[in-house]
Amino acid sequence: MSFNTSLSGINAANSDLNVTANNIANVNTTGFKESRAEFADLFSYTTYGLSRNAIGAGVKVSNVAQQFSQGNIDPTGRSLDFAIDGEGFFTVNKNGNTLYTRAGNFQTDNQGYVVTPDGARLQVFAPNAGGAGFDVGRLSDLQLLTTDSPPAQTGMVNLMVTLPGNASPPVTTPFDPADPNSYNASSGGVTVYDSLGVSHVQTSYFVKTANPNEWQVHNYVDGTSVGAPTTLQFSGSGTLVSPASGQITMDPFTPATGAGVLNMTLDMSGSTQYGSTFALRDVRQDGYAAGKLSEISVAEDGVVFARYTNGDDVALGQVALTNFVNPQGLQSQGNNQWGATYASGTPRTGAPDSSDFGQIQAGALESSTVDLTEQLVNMIVAQRNFQANAQMISTQDQATQTVINIR
């Protein structure tokens, strides 16, 4: 009996060493969660139950529990490195099996899918068909777009100016865009785009009339007039009163590129007539040319954006995080991945930065939770336990030999 008791101690100490060795081996493994050997004592039962004076029968390993604490988040600068700051697991799909991981060192495969190093595809909530929000009831594989971003035709040109209140009508009439003496000021040219993404130049010329607080604006695209002059009327305090909406509808312009007709509106809301100097205070337009994919970025709420050289951002999906009532009940599958079990509870999937789910930190990785100093101390303790139990066997052997040698 005493030999078995000491042998159980040796086995337990050996298991403790194995757990410690595994922790030390994974000290630099991304997203690794350290394990802890947990022990329980043993008692022998008789026919009549456990004796009050029973001596223990040794020890057993009751559980090897992984500790799902938060690891340090280390920046990497790589766009496909993700870290979870808080609760939850990345959801991945490998050959039809749903698995979970804290290791966010993702990469792309030859089809553009975002995968783990062993090929499991990262799961996201797909964008809704209308473009607003995400379908949180359906998971899909995250695939990076490799095509160009299509162009967008300009529909609105925003132009905010300050016209000089002391201006006089030009000395040269009639208006001629080629003659600077026939107008007081110009917008300098705004780059606009047709339906093919080809750029054109829209220019507004401002001519002071003989009437107080009154101007005319002439609009041109690529040197071609797009409508009759429009009268601008300002109040005595310098604010724009006509047109009341501040918007001027230009005539359609047909590009020579074969693109569709360009219909644009000039919005001059906020323009004023002050002082003695012309000032261009704001100029914007809502079109853009075709763009090349420049980078992938991820927001804290897990939305993955494809950013293009033309300034367009396309939401590809929202990273899906999964949490469990009992994470320690998860079954390790290797490759930094876990599978759900009955003990872990039903998986609960949601969006990052909502409920009890953590935030996504892009360009960073969660480091291993192993404290090397602590593990080295554990190794010494387990080694001493092993030696002490081995010494107990040696002592018991000597005692047994002494009894056998009694004459």
TrEMBL record:
It comes from the Bacteria. Its main location: other. InterPro entries: Falgellar_hook_FlgE_sf, Flag_bb_rod_N, Flagellar_basal_body_rod_CS, Flagellar_FlgE/F/G, Flg_bb/hook_C_dom, FlgE/F/G-like, FlgE_D2, LlgE_F_G-like_D1. It holds the Pfam family Flg_bb_rod. Residues 169-288 form the Flagellar hook protein FlgE D2 domain. Keywords: Bacterial flagellum, Cell projection, Cilium, Flagellum. Residues 83-124 form the Flagellar hook protein FlgE/F/G-like D1 domain. Residues 3-33 form the Flagellar basal body rod protein N-terminal domain. Residues 361-406 form the Flagellar basal-body/hook protein C-terminal domain. Gene3D superfamilies: Flagellar hook protein FlgE (2.60.98.20). It is found in: Bacterial flagellum basal body. A flexible structure which links the flagellar filament to the drive apparatus in the basal body. Belongs to the flagella basal body rod proteins family. This is Flagellar hook protein FlgE. It comes from Pseudoxanthomonas kaohsiungensis.
